TrEMBL record:
This is Undecaprenyl-diphosphatase. Signal peptide: none annotated. It holds the Pfam family BacA. It is an enzyme of class 3 (hydrolase). InterPro entries: UppP. It comes from Clostridium amylolyticum. Its EC number is 3.6.1.27.
Amino acid sequence: MDKFLGEFYNKIVQWQRKVGSRMDFVFIFKAIIISIVEGITEFLPISSSGHMILVGDLINFNDGKFTIMFEIVIQLGAILAIVVLYWHRFKDSLISFFKLEPYGLKFWTTILVAFLPAAVIGFLLDDFIENHLFNSKTVTIGFIVGGILLIIIENNFRRKSRRKKVTTSIDKVNYKQAIKIGLFQCIAMWPGMSRSASTIMGGWIAGLNNTAAAEFSFFLAIPTMVGASALKLIKYDAYSNISKTQVTALIIGFIVAFLVALIVVDAFMNFLKKHPMRVFALYRIFMGIILGILAFTKVIM
C-alpha cells in the first residue's frame, strides 16, 4: 500500500509540474499577443490602450499589478523603436540641446511645451481615469468619437491647406503650435481616443502637414510615455515578488513590441505620404460598433 501511495503521489507531482509548465507557456503566449497589439497600435491613430483593454479582456490577460507593469514595459519597447528609427535626429538634437545651441534648445523646448498639459492633467486625474475609464464601454465611445473627429478635422485641414502654407518639418514647429498639440494630446486620456490620433489632429489644427504631425507625435511620445511609466512604477509596487514566468514575459514582451513597432512606424510614414488617414477613422468607427455589440451582449465587460 505504501508503495502504491508513493507512486500515486509521484504521478500527481509530475502532473502538477506539466500543468504548471503548460500554464506558464499560455501566460507567456498571451503576453506575446498583447505585445504584438501594442507594437501595431501604439503609433497608429487607433488607440493602443483601447486595443490592449479589448484584447486583454478577450484572452483573459489580467494579472493585477503585474499587468500594469507589463503594459508599461512593452510601451517603452515601442518607444525604443522611435529612438532607433530617428536615431540621427534624436542624437543630434540632444547633443545640440546640451551644448545650448539654438537648434537643440528650440527642438526640445517645443516638445516640452507640448508635453506639459498632459503631464499636469494626467498627474492630477490619474486615479480617476484608472478607476472609471478603463473599461470596454468607455473604449467603445473613444473609438467612435475619435474616428468621427479624425474625419472632420482631416477634411477641414485639407481644405485649409490648399489656401494656407503648412509646416512641413518638426524643426519649424513654434511654441504656439506646440501648445495646441499638447492640449489636444489631453484628449487621449480617455481610453480609445488614441494619443497618436489626438496629437496628429492637434498637429493639423496647428498647421502641420501629415508627415510633420506624425513625426512630432512620435517625439512627443517619448517624454509622455516615459513620464507616465515612471508615475505607474512609483505608484505600484509591481516589481516585488515577481515570478520567473513574469520576468520572461517582460523580456519577450519588450522585444516583441520593439520589433513590431519598428516595422509598423516605417510602414505608417510611407502610407502617410500617399494616403489620407480616413481608413483609420473608418476602422475605428467599425471597431467601436463591434465593441458596442460585444459589450451590450456582455461578451466583454
